Amino acid sequence: MHIKSLLLIGIILAAFTVTNAVAVDGGNAGKGKHLLKRSCAGCHKRGGEAEVIKAEEKTMRQWDRFFRKAKRKHPGNTFKEISKRDKKDINQYLFDNAVDAPSEETCG
Ligand code: HEC
What we know:
The protein is mostly helical and 108 residues long. The protein has helices at 2-21, 29-40, 60-73, 84-96. 55% of the residues lie in helices and 0% in strands.
């Protein structure tokens, strides 16, 4: 009995930690992957004006910080012109595949 309740507490704590780690709330990573190609890869490509974007180049936290400040690192209005919704999805995709993200990709 005692062990069971400890286990339950453990599960609740683990669930909380997982939810807590997802700082980008409700973005659609699947869509984000495509949007990244559409909205970002025009410049971020081999031989383009900026480096190819790799999700694993940053940590989850760094990606979230990047999306808060990205406007300033980008020429003119390029970043502002991408809709908030799209950026959230792209942010989610990069976050989910960040260097320190728990990898699900390898399972599927
Ligand atoms: C109009 C061209 C253009 C578009 C569109 C664009 N970028 Fe950039 N981006 C740049 C340039 C130029 C830089 C600065 C040079 C560099 O770091 O390669 C840059 C820099 C960056 C950096 C490096 C900055 C850092 O501190 O790590 C990241 C990451 C990035 N962009 C992500 C994105 C994402 C994500 C999108 C799409 C939502 C995007 N960019 C769309 C041109 C663009």
